[in-house]
Amino acid sequence: MNKxxxxxxxxxxxxxxxxxxxxxxxxxxxxxxxxxxxxIADIIGFDVDKENEKELLGGTIIHQYQSGKKxxxxxxxxxxxxxxxxxxxxxxxxxxFPIEIGKxxxxxxxxxxxQQKSLKDIMTTFDMNVKFGTNMKFIISKESIPFFFxxxxxxxxxxxxxxxxxxxxxxxxxxxxxxxxxxxxxxxxRDPILPYVSIENGEITLTNVGIIGREDKLQMLxxxxxxxxxKLIVNESKQLKYSxxxxxxxxxxxxxxxxxxxxxxxxxxxxxNSLKIDLTTNxxxxxxxxxxxxxxxxxxxxxxxxxxxxxxxxxxxxEFQKNDVDPIGVGDSFRSKDRSWNEKEFYKTKYPNLxxxxxxxxxxxx
Amino acid sequence: MNNNQSKLKETLLISPFFMxxxxxxxxxxxxxxxxxxxxxxxxxxxxxIGLLIAGLILQIILFITFKLxxxxxxxxxxxxxxxxxxxxxxxxxxxxxxxxxLLFLTTVFWSYIEILQVWAFExxxxxxxxxxxSIIVFYIVIGxxxxxxxxxxxxxxxxxxxxxILIYTLKFSHFSNLLPVLSxxxxxxxxxxxxxxxxxxGFEALLIYFPFIRNRAKGKKWAYxxxxxxTVSYTILAIITFSFFSEGQxxxxxxxxxxxxxxxxxxxxxxxxxxxxxxxxxxxxxPICISLWSxxxxxxxxxxIKPSYSLISIIxxxxxxxxxxxxxxxxxxxxxxxSEIGFYIILVYLPVLYxxxxxxxxxxxxx
Lengths: 366, 367
Description:
The structure holds 2 protein chains of 2 kinds.
Chain A: H1 2-5, H2 11-30, E1 39-47, E2 56-64, E3 73-81, H3 84-93, E4 99-100, E5 106-110, H4 111-116, H5 119-128, E6 137-141, H6 145-154, H7 159-170, H8 178-186, E7 193-200, E8 203-212, E9 218-222, H9 224-234, E10 240-248, E11 251-269, E12 274-287, H10 298-323, H11 330-335, H12 343-350, E13 355-364
Parallel strand pairs in A: 1-4, 1-5, 5-6, 6-7, 12-13
Antiparallel strand pairs in A: 1-2, 2-3, 7-8, 8-9, 10-11, 11-12
Chain B: H1 18-27, H2 31-43, H3 47-70, H4 77-120, H5 126-142, H6 145-162, H7 164-169, H8 186-195, H9 197-200, H10 206-209, H11 216-244, H12 247-250, H13 256-261, H14 272-303, H15 307-324, H16 328-366
Helix pairs in contact in B: 1-6, 1-11, 1-14, 2-3, 2-8, 3-8, 3-11, 3-16, 4-14, 4-16, 5-14, 5-15, 6-14, 14-15
């Protein structure tokens, strides 16, 4: 039994195996990718095609690592096509080397494109192509993609990705990536949010947040204040900077804070059709008018911040109801408690009439 | 065979403790990468309950399996079939059982190669992977059952390191996705339980290798623990997947577990999924090796074919089949056939066989 199982390997089997392995390794040497023989796509963008009558215009910013060129000198290439892959194929045709898309960090859509075309067909490309990373950022641009890319090329390498990443981690843009977008996009009872980029006086700025509605279109655009308000109730562990007005003895000034950490809790009650949001923010004061003393006026600051937040949250939520968007995921919260929940019915009858209550607890850390 | 000792030579036997690794690692394979999709088709995000039910039912089946083996003269299915059906019919039944192992190992092998092709090396042909991987498989199986056991040990331990990446996904998790619990009816949940059987397949190989366990009674205990560990791991992974992806999003994915690992981003490893895919080879090895070993052992006991010859023949067949048949649709068809056959063998054939043996014994005792 033992002898049979642990057979004495005939020498020719060993020899054949070694020869086969040698062939395999040799074949492996035939297919290689060297960094100066490929172009690495950094940003991919899609826009409406105005010149030809194709479905879309695709563009990429590629990094060329060929010898003789300054390392990583970026270049923009465009091509129109009837689908995402068609447009990408057009771009490949214009490239001297194969374009690798696996390192794409940002995906940009022009506002016009989102308003006119359906995202559904495009998203399937990103579901099916496993090469795209989940941490890829997904952005809407106010300007057309060719104009936008021109401006990006004027900046240093990686500027745009770092701009988005920095604003999501430390500033007022809610954190998002391809996974979070797809979660909201395919999920029920929640609408995806995307950073919205514009070019002001030749400078690329990221101040707004766009909400994609259930009709697959950009339904609402949030300003700077609403963006950070939203961030506080969707990303609890991220930091952000915010300012609020303060009044004392007829004087008016501005208080600036760093939100360091916080908590939020969304409570819904399907029977009473009510929504309650409890928010705790632990902030550090970083700027104040000279007539404010953060120790003596602690209670005043706390009261002003809490009132300001509650008032603005209620106003913002009314806007959400008016525009029929749900970036917080109120519908999803109702779904998790109500077996008979139906998305269409909920947003038609219940969402506009929600009984909303915001509760803010502010803690000053310094 | 009621005593706890094996008839095999002492040097061939393994400690009962290794039953844990053998049972657990023969179940975990490529199924672990996409089982969430199959189970959630019928009962959505209530499917994790189906997994627990499937795990519980399989504990009963495992109990029946051990009861069956108690009635055999050598402690395995080969002798059991021979004892109760005669040499010709018994051997034929065992060889038919073998076909299940062949289908199972081909499914696992092909599915892993498909993953390698789709996720990592698009331009490399399937036959090249098959050739290289089959050399490794050949080398392990030819080493005998004790070497395979050694591999199962490492293939259980090494992937545990990968479990830590699940912690990374928690900050993106929405556990409310699982609520409301029991929003589907019992039939849908049972359908999910049925769909999850393919992920649990593989442990039936113990019907062949059980005589190699030194202390049977202790071995049984470890087998139950191994199955329980598989059930718990699957359930935890299902719950984490369901809270990570929204229900609509999950439907668009092909390999949810792999997409889950894509979220991990470490400053020095941008794409963690590649490390995951290649480490997964260790997880895929045991089901392939154990099944292959079982086939060679059955062919040796029934048709008296030398294991080395049968092993080389099967590996050549595997390579040829990859060149001639393998593509996406054939993998799907094979995996469907294999899981259906596996389902009926485990949940229908084994209990029926047990009842048959009880009846036969009843009449034998009477006369």
